[in-house]
Amino acid sequence: MNFLTKSNLVTLPARTFAIVFVLSLFASVCKTPEVKKAPVVEVKKPEPVEKVVEQQDPNLAFLESIEDGRELPESDKWKVEQYDVFTEDTFPSYAPANTAIDFAKIDYPLLNAAVFYVTSKERKTLGLRPFKYSEKCEQAAFGHAQDMVTYDFYSHTSTVNGKETLRDRLDLVGITDTYSAENIINSFGIQYQGGRAVFTPLQNGGPFFSYTKAGSPIPNHTYLSLAKAVVEIWFNSPGHRKNILNPEFTYMGAGTSFYKDKKFYDIDKVKAVQVFTAKP
User: Are 166 and 182 in contact (CB under 8 A)?
Assistant: First the structure.
């Protein structure tokens, strides 16, 4: 057996022992504080777009942008600047206005101009001042005509969120605090005579309507003749006529949009809008 002898023992000096004791005490007291972990917050995933849409009013259509449907298309036959050149008396002699409408390539600015000038002519004939053209009124009218076609409704009250009333639509184009009114119509793109029976494309064996079987096709309207047809219908309606002849209105813009009526052999029809305001 091995025994430790006194010579094997190392005796620490009192001073050294004190230092070791203090360091030991410090180490036991000055422990590194425990770091508390922050509670984990569960991040909820956003609801799918489909669910959000389902919670919206099902009676309203929703656009990606509230400004959709207000941009006027380009035209090589009619520019905005031409409103300063033509009058209600000179426009009818403008050759492009007297060409037949090609339903596959409709010049909307030209048709809108035709409706504007024919309407203004009616006012002048009855001794009132002609309308002044408003591009903003045209934007509001054209947008509403497009919406009525796109979302399949026919009303002054739009089914598009944010564009329900004429006031809403005017606000969107920058017309505020003014007296205003609107006329709308749903009419034929061909020169159909109301009340007459027609033979359909199915009966004719070709893509046209006629008054006799396989007879001469009913011709497409020209830009000017269509404008005259819709304005005549408006003018023969007391409420619409009142808007056209209201002396409080100084500015006007027209908008149109074509579609094929699925309920009647895809006949080409047009929804047209007039917007009147007292201020630009």
Answer: yes
Structure tokens at 88: 């209600």
Residue 245, classed as helix, strand or coil, is helix
Angstrom distance (rounded) from CA 140 to CA 5? 111
pLDDT digits 0-9 by tens, 119-149: 999 999 999 999 999 999 999 999 999 999 9
Domain borders along the chain are 79-277
**CB count in 10 Å sphere of residue 169:** 28
pTM > 0.85: yes or no: no
CATH number for 79-277: choose from 3.40.50.620, 3.40.33.10, 3.40.50.970, 3.50.7.10.
Answer: 3.40.33.10
Return the amino acid letter for 40: V
Closest CA to 271 of 261, 254, 256, 260: 256
